Amino acid sequence: MKRRDKRNKRNRRNKRHRSLRARALLALAVIAGSLAIALTTPVRLGLDLRGGTQITLETRSTLTTDADADADAAATARTVEVLRGRIDALGVAEPTLVRSGDHRILVELPGVHDPKKAADVLGRTAQLTVHAVLGPAGTADGATSPPADPAKERVLPDDSGQPLRLRAADLTGRDVEGAEARFDQQGGAGWHVTVDFSKTGQDRWRQVTARAACHPAGDPQRRVAIVLDNKIISSPQVDPSVPCGTGIPGGTTQITGSFDDTEARELALLISGGALPVPVETVEQRTIGATLGDAAIEAAARAAVIGTALTALFIIAVYRLLGLLATAALACYGLISYAALAALGATLTLPGLAGFVLAIGMAVDANVLVFERAREEYAARGRPSPRSALTAGFRGALSAIADSNITTLIAAGLMFAFASGPVRGFGITLAIGVLASMVSALVISRVLAEYAAGRPAVRRRPRVTGIASTGWVRDRLLRREPFLMRRPRRWLAASAVLAVVAASGILVRGLDFGIEFTGGRLIEYATNTPVDPDRARTALTDAGFPRTVVQSSGETGLTVRAENLTNADAATVTETIGALGGETKKVRDELIGPSMGDELRRNALIALSLALGAQLLYLAVRFRWFFGTAAVVALAHDVVILIGAFAWLGKPIDGVFLAALLTVIGYSVNDSVVLFDRVRELLGRDRATPLPRLTNQAILQTLPRTVNTGMGAAFILTALAVLADDTLADFALALLIGLAVGTWSSVFTAASLTIELGPHRKPFGGAAVTTGPSGRPG
C-alpha cells in the first residue's frame, strides 16, 4: 500500500512538472513571438494621434434617367477608383480609401490639415463638357435673357462675367484621355492645361471647331466654351488659321487662363482623374492637428505609466511575492497587446489608447480572482503548501474569469459593430486587451507563480507569497460577519433613490449631445492668450453666428460648436477668435452631417439595447433566469445613474461617452458574474441554507476581490482623468463613476433583486425551507 501511494504521488508530481513545463514553453513562445512582432511591425496610429483629415463621403443618386447615375454599390466602387487616382495625384503619404457599405466611402489623409482643399478635390464631380457658343445672352438693357430652348442650350457667364448662350454639350469628360499642367516659357503665356481627347473625342473636337471656324474673327460664335462643374473655365476663340469646315485635327487643346502652378495642377488632376459616376456629399469630416495628437499620446502615456506604477505597487503591497510576479506578467500583457495590434493591422486611436490602459486594470482582475481564491483554499485546507493552494485557486477562479471576460467581449463587439471612427478603435483595443489579459493571467502569471511557490525557500516561508494570510479586508469581514442581505428591500429602495436623483438631472438639466448625435461642426482652437467664452460668444454673435456654443478647452483652448458652418463660415469664426486670442491655431475640426448624426444616434440606441439584451441572454444561459434579470435591472440602474451624473455635470454625451457606457455595462456584469458564480457554487454544496444567507456569504467571500480589483482600476482611471486631455478625462470620469456605481449595484442591487426574484421555497433538494422577505426562515 505504501509503495502504491509513493508511486501515485510520484506520478502526480511528474504530471504536474510536465504540465508546468508545457505552460512555460507556451509562455516563452508567446513572449518571443510578441517581441519579434513588436520590434519589426509598427502599430498604425489613427488620425487623432498622428494628425490629418478623415472624410466620410456618401454617394447620391442624380435625378436623371441615366442608369450610371444610380448610387448603387457598383457606382460607389467606381467612385472609389476615381477618388483613388485623385488622392494619389495629391501626393498624400499612406492614404486610406475604403468603401463602407453600398453608399459610404471612408478617406483618411494623414498630414493633410486643410479640410477645405481635401474636400473640394474629393467632392467635386469634375463634369467636364465642351460647348459651341451660340452668342451673347445679354439684352439691350443689360439683363440676361433666358435660353430659348433649355433642353438644347444653356446660359453661363464666361471668365469675364459676360453671359453666353451655349449649345448642348458636344464633348464630355468621357471623351478625355488625359490632361497635364504645363508652363509656357517661350510664349510667356504662363501655366496652362493641355487636354488630350480619346479617339471618339478627337472627331467630335474637330467637328465643333470646324463649325466655329466658319464665323469671322471676333464673333462670339467663333469661341468654344470649356465648362467644368457648370462653370466656364475657358472660352477661347478658334485660331484664324483654322479654315471653315476643317477644324483642329489631332484631338488636343489647351485650357488657358490666369492659373498659378497649384491651380493648373489641380485642374489637370480633376480632368484626368475622370468624372465621378455619381455626386458625393461629405457627411463626416474630422481634422486633427499634429500637435494635438502628440500631446494626447504624451498625456495618455504619462497617465499609463503613473497609473500602472500605482497599481503595481498596490498589488505588490497586498500580495507580496505573487503581486511582484503578477506585475511582471502585466508587462508581458502590454507586450502581447501591442504585438496583437501590430499583427492585425489594427488602428490605434485616442480612445483605443485609453482602452489599452484600461485593460491593464482588467488584467489585474484575473490575478486578483486567482490570488483571493488561493487565500481561501489555503485557509480552508488547513494551510497546505502554497503551490497546491495556487493550483486550486487557478482551478476555482477559471469559471468566473471566463464568464466575466466574455461579458466584456460582448460590449467590445457591440462597439465595433455599431460605433464609428475612434470608438470602433476602442472596441478593437479593448477586445485585444481582454484576450491578452487572459493569456497573461492564466499562462504567464501561473507559470511564474507556481514555479516560485515550489521553491524550497518559499515553502519554508509561506507568508512571503501573500496567500498565506487572508488580508485585512477579509479579516474584518470574518470577525464581524455582517448580514448585509437581512433586509434586501432597503438596498433596493436606496438604489431606486439614487436612480431617481440621477434621472431628475436628465429632466432638469437636459442632455448635452455631442455633434456625433446632433450633426453640426465643432472647431477647437489653441490661442496665444486665454479667451473668455462669454466674450468669444458675444464676438461671434456680432459676426453673424448667434447660435454657436462656445466652451473653454484646457488652459488656453476654446471650442466652438454650431449646427451649420460652411468652410467660409469656419474661416470667419477663425478670424474672430484670432482677433481675441492673438495667434490662433486650429487643432481640431469635426463636421457631422445631419444624416450621419441621425444614424449614429440610432446606432447608439441599438448598441445600448443589444448590450442589455445580450447580457441578459448570456446570464440566463450560464445561470438562472432570475440571476440574469437581476443583473440586467442593475445594468439599467447603472446606465441611468451614469447618464444622469453627466447631465448634472453638464458633460457632453458623445461617441466616447458611449464607449465608456458600454464598458461600464461590461464591468458591472463582470462584478455580478463573479458574485453569481460564487452563489451558484454555494448552492451546489449547500441545499438547505436559505438563499439570502447563501447570497450574503457569497458577498462576503468575493468582496475582497471587488475591493482590490476596484482599487487597481481606480488608480489607472484617476491618472487618466487628471493627466489626459479633456476627451479622455471625460472618458475616465465616466468610468470612475461607473466603477463606483457598478460595484454598488452588483453587491446590493443585483444581489438584493436576486433574493426577491428567486424562489422563496428552495427547490434544490432536501427539506423545503420557506423564507420571509427579510431572508430569515419562516
TrEMBL record:
Domain (SecDF P1 head subdomain) ranges: 155-278
Gene responsible for this protein: secD
Family to which the UniProt record says this protein belongs: Belongs to the SecD/SecF family. SecD subfamily.
Entry function: Part of the Sec protein translocase complex. Interacts with the SecYEG preprotein conducting channel. SecDF uses the proton motive force (PMF) to complete protein translocation after the ATP-dependent function of SecA.
Matching SUPFAM superfamilies: Multidrug efflux transporter AcrB transmembrane domain
The protein, known as: Multifunctional fusion protein
Assembly, per entry: Forms a complex with SecD. Part of the essential Sec protein translocation apparatus which comprises SecA, SecYEG and auxiliary proteins SecDF. Other proteins may also be involved.
Transmembrane segments: 299-319, 324-346, 352-371, 392-419, 425-449, 491-511, 604-621, 626-649, 707-725, 731-755
Species this protein is from: Streptomyces javensis
Lineage, opening ranks: Bacteria, Bacillati, Actinomycetota, Actinomycetes, Kitasatosporales
Membrane topology: Multi-pass membrane protein
Pfam families: Sec_GG (PF07549), SecD_1st (PF21760), SecD_SecF_C (PF02355), SecDF_P1_head (PF22599)
